[in-house]
Amino acid sequence: MQHQLSSFIYETIPSLAREIYAVCLMLFKLTIPVLIIVKLLEELGAIPYISRVLEPVMQLVGLPDSMGLVWATTLLTSIYGGMLIFFQLAPQENLTVAQVTVISTLMLIAHSLPIELRIVQKAGVKIVFALLIRVIPALILGALLHHSYLWGDWLQQPVVLMWQPPVTDDSLLSWGLNQLQSFMMIIVVITVLMSLLRFLRWIHIERLMIWLLQPVLKLLGIGPQAASLTIVGVTLGLSFGGGLLIREAQSGRVSPKDCFSALCLLSLCHSMIEDTLLVMTLGADLSGVLWARLIFSLVFIAIMTRVLNRLSEPTQHRWLLNPAIRD
């Protein structure tokens, strides 16, 4: 017991602290420039014009124009980066739970594209297809959720935001202080979520996920060599699963088709634990960000793998499959 306590104090806590520090540092390096640009655009009165450009896309999924800026930030940086913009813009919009669930679903499927598209490309998917399979399915699922919630009059109550920037004057000093408060809030969220994720790994929750998902992956046409790595990505994230798939694809132990199907599934449905918990802090509902996303991803990939099997090998290699890139 004493040894376990000593290990927890001197190994687990420092390791977790280093992990939290690394994530926060990377996040702030990415998002602080974006926040400054957004503030400059706001001061110049450009936000309404940018929102107008994104308006047709947001109308498809029943969201106000400003949420286009949240998603655009998420696409270029990360979910955390999108959250910072969300906290800045959402209090002015009177969003419903349904709308927050829709924007959260868009953020979950399509985010961190500069980094994650490179991972997928290195593991064996053409970059253009990798981009399309993140953005188009995200919009399709967003539209389906929007119309379903509207049709059933579900989740139409106003969302209760976990945190809102305080109402202050419009000076740059006040804005800077508000952003510092936002950063502190994000640090708290990251600390809680990463601690919870570490606990879930400690109790081996991923073993339950493997047991549940392995039969489903067989139905999707993903072979056993890629199945366990796919489940790692689904539970822990594209960087984990994608990184392992890159190694396996480069070694030749996983076939290009299996790798392609696995990567397409991970593109739509990864980090089911951490990212789902993360967007729930925005007020999103599990019906969309977990269950609908999981079912939609499985159905979409099942259809896609059957279409893939009907294509000739030259067509597959020309438009879809990319040889695993070695460093």
TrEMBL record:
Q: Which residues cross the membrane?
A: 20-41, 68-90, 96-115, 127-152, 172-196, 290-308
Keywords, A to Z, come to:
Membrane, Transmembrane, Transmembrane helix
Ranges of residues in domain Nucleoside transporter/FeoB GTPase Gate: 25-113
Work out whether the entry's keyword set contains GTP-binding. Answer: no
- Top-rank lineage group of the source organism: Bacteria
UniProt name for this protein: Nucleoside transporter/FeoB GTPase Gate domain-containing protein
Species: Amphritea opalescens
- Classification of source organism: Bacteria, Pseudomonadati, Pseudomonadota, Gammaproteobacteria, Oceanospirillales
